[in-house]
Design a protein that fits this description.
Blueprint lengths: L13 H34 L4 H6 L3
Length: 60
């Protein structure tokens, strides 16, 4: 059993905390940009398949 003077886990350095915070915020920003772009563009991509020229291509 360790002495009470010993620390079990060394403290995480400030640089490592800053790195994880920066990577997390970067990932969140990229994900937000992709979701926003999909929200803006996707209705046009979905509805272009419901046009007359596309329906003429089907064998029915």
């Amino acid at each position: 059993m360790p002495n009470s003077d010993e620390k079990m886990n060394p403290p995480v350095s400030a640089g490592l905390k800053r790195y994880f915070r920066a990577m997390g915020l970067t990932a969140l920003a990229v994900l937000s940009a992709v979701v926003t772009l999909n929200y803006v563009v996707d209705p046009y991509l979905i509805h272009q398949w419901d046009t007359q020229p596309i329906h003429r291509l089907s064998p029915t």
